[in-house]
Amino acid sequence: MKTTIKLFALVFVMSFYFTGCYTVVWNPNEEFPDTENSYESSSDFYDYDYYGGYVNYYESPWWVSAPVYITLPDGTTEKRITKERTNGNNTRSTGTENMRNSSGRGNTDRNSGTTNNITTPTTTTNSGSSNTSNVVTPPPPTRNTNSGNTSTTNSSTSTSNTRNSGSNESRNSSGSRNSGSGRK
Amino acid sequence: MFKHILKIFSAIILLFVTTTNAQNYNDAIRLGFPGLGSNARALGMGNAFNALSDDASASYFNPAGFGLIKKMELSGGLSFTNFDNTTTFFGNETNDNTTNTSLHRVSFVLPFPTYQGSLVFGLSYHNSKDLTGVVKFDGFNDGNTSRIKFLNENSNIPYDLFLTDSNYNTPINGNLNQSGNILNSGGIDNWTFSGAIEVQKNLFIGGNLTIVNGSFESNNDYYEDDTRNAYPGETAAGEPQTTDFKTFYLNNTLKWNIGGWDAKLGFLYQYEDVARFGATVQFPKTFTIDEEFLVSGKSEFGTGQVYTLGSDYNDKVAYDIVTPFELNGAAAVNLNGIIVSAEATLIDYSQLKFKDSNDGLSASYVADVNKEIKDVLRTVLNYNLGFEYTVPTIGLRIRGGFMNQASAFKDDDSEFNHKYLTGGLGFLADGNIGIDVAYAYGWWKDIGDNYGSNVSRTFQDVKVHNVMLTTTLRF
User: How far apart are CA B131 and CA B186, in angstroms?
Assistant: First the structure.
């Protein structure tokens, strides 16, 4: 028994000796880096095109937001991991709040005029846990509906329906969507 | 083909009747031979899962696979086994089957948050082997042998049952109907603590420590009946109440309380999104056996006289059985939604050994049994093949597989190998609940001797149906 334990320990320790320690554990007392793709994972074995919802099941760490798969106009799928939103340390910057919530009417004003900022509609596939079939195609752009409709991505837990509704009213009507700390 | 088997069973019977310490290599094989594990996804793929191992069943297959798990996981499931045995005994075919339903796994996996790499721990209870089995036989042996005669050469049981006179002479010399059944039940359960870490990008190392807890019971009923009235006179000369021998009945019940421990080391490398390669070293498992052997019997005569055995032949001993190293290599290839996996396991059964725990077995007896093990058992290479196809639009997975567990006995033909054809389905509900179902059909041949060598032999055709259900919640 002692020999077995010694051999077991030796192999385990030697593996670190030769390879170094690749894994870096997150210290809960430290802020999780607020940069995209801050989590360095091993290569994904399950590809979204072939495994669908199983990708999130296998490849998304519970401490990092689920990746969002965006189908580009050329038909390819792009994986995007949103900024970390779950550890409570990623409150929105003051600058962002000022831009979006300063008066409660700015957004409405922003849509009142005519702009030529017409974006190409994209199809967004949200791979979140409850949205595996939520393929939403925004309505055709018009001059009055899409200005400022930037291509932000939401995590699976966000209110993606309002984001993609294309309705000025629901998007900007009350400001409640952006109020308080509801948005993680 | 059968020469070594003849030798084996001769040795078994000799050991059994010459001493009450009837332990032999069949007991060692019972613990050393692989089971079916406890994961429906893996079973559906013919248990070719060592290179995948990306769920809590990594504790059974490859602990390095824990490093691939990125969500907390709670999983469990049930297993149903139907063991069907058709026995041919002196030209007479008899069928019997037995079933068993058990909780086969409860597991929890905790991946630690990391900036890069992975560090994952798991705690699992799982059933690694179902010991359910049955043999039933019934036929007329017109030879000049009988178990009464055989026991009379090595024990006092026929004497105690008035089947001999006071000088151990008996007129019984074969020509008896022999029947009986052997019912086996029990299983090997494991409590496993596992851990895995990513030591380089895509290279994982894991290990586990298992505490074994299990039980086994074998209930053996055996009858010899004078159905053709070959012995109408006194069976024990001078004892008129023993006139007209009718029946001899013997029951052996073997009860095991199984404890023990083992450890496993695993490696897994993922090559991009194309392939995974796995390797494991299963260190020798040490099983501690607390054994109780119960013997009862009776004889019946035409006079209405019945004699029963006392408890003189009951026995309690304790000993250890140590299994050999098991080396496994595996690969899984991912081809556009189809995973094809294969693995091979090297086991040298001749390294199975008994260890004396100073509680009933003498050192010389243990040495003799271990020598016998080396003489009759061999090194084998087991293999597993499997595939899985995922229909991405509906989250349905379709699986198939095959596994071959080679017989441990030297010179056994492939028909004695345990072969399984498997299939399975998997579903993903709400994106975080995995439901997997597997079915395995196993078949092989076996033989057994009631006594002696090939004078009272059962030829067994075994078929096993196993259904496994596993549910996994990831969060």
Answer: 5
Spatial distance between the Cα atoms of A67 and A52, rounded to a whole number of angstroms: 12
CB contact under 8 A, A11 and B431: no
Contacts B70 to A, Cβ<8 Å: 41, 58-62
Buried b (16+ CB within 10 A) or exposed e, B277-295: bbbbbbbbbbbbbbbebeb
CA distance B47 to A58: 19
- The tens digit of pLDDT for each residue in B263-287 reads 999 999 999 889 999 999 999 999 9
Sequence-distant (≥ 6) Cβ neighbours of residue B364 within 8 angstroms: none
CB B324 within 8 A of CB B32: yes
DSSP designation for B58: G
Give the C-alpha separation, A32 to A85, whole Å.
10
Separation of alpha carbons B341 and B50, rounded Å = 9
- The CA distance from B224 to B176, in Å, is 6
Pick the residue from chain A with its C-alpha nearest to B67: A42
Predicted confidence pLDDT, tens digits, chain A (184 residues): 556 556 656 665 665 555 567 888 887 777 766 544 556 566 688 888 888 888 888 888 888 766 555 666 666 666 555 444 334 343 334 433 333 333 333 333 333 333 344 333 443 434 333 333 334 444 444 334 333 333 333 333 333 333 333 333 333 333 333 333 333 2
| DSSP state letter for A176 | G
The pTM for the full model equals 0.77
**B357–A contact, CB cutoff 8 A:** no
- HEC profile of B349-417: HHHCEEEEEEECCCHHHHHHHHHHHHHHECEEEEEEEEEEEEECCCCEEEEEEEEEECCCECCCCHHHC
Residues of A in contact with B273 (CB under 8 A): 43-47
| Nearest-Cα residue of chain B relative to residue A7 | B283
Task: Order the strands of the A77-80 sheet from edge to edge.
Answer: A77-80, A68-71, A123-125, A135-136
Are A12 and B198 inside 8 Å of each other by CB?
no
**H helix or E strand, kind and range, residue B28:** helix B25-32
Beta bridge partner(s), residue B300: B247, B306
The Cβ of residue B306 has, within 10 Å, a number of other Cβ atoms equal to 15
- CB-based burial label for A76 (10 Å; 0-12, 13-18, 19+): exposed
Give the β-pairing of A135-136 and A123-125. antiparallel
Nearest CA-CA distance, residue B326 and chain A, Å: 13
**Partner residue facing B395 (CB), from A38, A42, A53:** A53
Looking at chain B, which residue has its C-alpha nearest residue A50? B337
